[in-house]
Amino acid sequence: MSQKSTEQLCVDDVVEIDGLKGEEPWSNKSKALFVVLMDEEVVKGNRPTTTFTKTSWNYMRSQLNASTGYNYSHHQLKNKFNKLRQIYKDFKKILSDMIENGWDPLLGTINLEEEQWNELFKVNNRAKKFRKSGYPHYEKLIRIFGDTTTTGVKLARQ
């Protein structure tokens, strides 16, 4: 199937998101849509390795372009994908560094007292960027990146 016919098939079933047209290229709404699209592609089995199939990339790009009115390039999607993977790894590390459980999966936030935050900052200085807003996409990113990233722990050979 040619690239043109693949894109034509994708445009026919555009995901409608209210209020995306006219937003900046990677607004919170467009990032949220990208995460939803990636999650759907993972569920469909279209990420056989650490990345998506060419057809999936084309589908996600056409959906984003149609929903936002912005003309994303393949390169922009790959860069955002890699950036989201790094943020996922950072947030996962923060959750593992927490002494007490303060993760609220419904809100996507970490709820800690001032003293607990200060202790967390001592062991992980990247925690500061998540203090006020948390990471609302984390639950979906677990499915998207969970089995494709390393945690920095070396496995012993048996």
Give a verbal description of the structure.
Helix content is 53%, strand content 3%. It is mostly helical and 158 residues long. It has 2 domains: 1-72, no CATH class; 82-149, no CATH class. A two-stranded antiparallel sheet has the order 1-2. The longest helix has 24 residues, at 74-97. The radius of gyration is 18 Å and the shape is elongated. It holds the Pfam family Myb_DNA-bind_3.
- Strand arrangement within the widest β-sheet reads 1-2
The tally of helices reads: 6
Q: Please provide the ordered H/E string of secondary-structure elements.
A: HHHHEEHH
Structural class designation: mainly alpha
Largest sheet: 2 strands, antiparallel
Shape: elongated
Low-confidence stretches: 1-19, 150-158
Oligomer classification: single chain
How far apart the termini lie comes to 46 Å
Beta-strand residue fraction: under 5%
- Counting DSSP E segments of at least 2 residues, the number of strands comes to 2
Question: What is the arithmetic mean of pLDDT?
Answer: 79
The tally of structural domains comes to 2
Global Rg: 18 Å
Helical content (DSSP H or I, runs of 4+):
40-55%
